[in-house]
Amino acid sequence: xxxxxxxxxxxxxxxxxxxxxxxxxxxxxxxxxxxxxxxxxxxxxxxxxxxxxxxxxxxxxxxxxxxxxxxxxxxxxxxxxxxxxxxxxxxxxxxxxxxxxxxxxxxxxxxxxxxxxxxxxxxxxxxxxxxxxxxxxxxxxxxxxxxxxxxxxxxxxxxxxxxxxxxxxxxxxxxxxxxxxxxxxxxxxxxxxxxxxxxxxxxxxxxxxxxxxxxxxxxxxxxxxxxxxxxxxxxxxxxxxxxxxxxxxxxxxxxxxxxxxxxxxxxxxxxxxxxxxxxxxxxxxxxxxxxxxxxxxxxxxxxxxxxxxxxxxxxxxxxxxxxxxxxxxxxxxxxxxxxxxxxxxxxxxxxxxxxxxxxxxxxxxxxxxxxxxxxxxxxxxxxxxxxxxxxxxxx
Length: 395
Fold this sequence. Notes:
Structural class: mainly alpha
Largest sheet: none
Oligomer: single chain
Number of strands: 0
Distance between the termini: 40 Å
């Protein structure tokens, strides 16, 4: 297939004197285009989510259109169970699976630097846990060489093991790289899909609508407010609720770290902070929320209907869920065990989990939230523009 695509590109280049580059669709993208043509003729699922109203604004599906729609899809699964052309019908329409396969490829294709895009294919559960364990072991060895792994007169202050400036020096560059790499990737994605989504600039009303859809996970309600299917065709709000626990738990933990940073550098208040200080309150609530959300998502993922997505991406999904759970669980354990002889051990486990999570963020499932937000922003912009094929815009 790759040889055929290369020959096609070469033929187009020769025919146009090398002046025109036409994106050639891959096998997965071609399949999404085929299914969208069928869905565009049927339109039974038009009210389910943002994908189908956006689809009706197109008669043809180019590479940018397909990448946009694939990331607009929330992998709800409702359309699969409603579709009269789903397998075993000869049309074999399975929009969630087809979109998931393309969506996974977009994370790799838009990754920065491009050479690291293949890490998406290798970022599985085993690798994630092995990385966390390896980093924790490295820190444990450092503690053993410095003194004692168990016990010691630390007074509950883990900065006596790893000074604050050392931790900042370790994590700040990694965090900066994560932000830069994700920013570069989503910028490339935005530039490609903008011309395919009217080309109009982003304005405040569209941004507010997209933010509302992101914060409420609007498109996990099945289009009717009762939720989406998981292991069968029964509606459930479980995926939406556990995603909320995970998302807001992560934000609260990040807020706790941010507030602690302000305390340290602006107010001169040195950690560790006692309960009920704001960093401790935010971290405790966020950690518990993150544990609940990831535990629920793990269970749902393991029981998910096999036709709902791309099975090849399941190790990456589970790896990300496991690292989030391990980060929150070890953080809470560190807080509870701060005054015990296990402080050094718990600290190394927590730092290993956090470092592994940071290291894999640009090349794991975390990217789906960034790319999906960009797609929702472009959808909110596009729907406010005149429909190019004369149909009414979605509400």
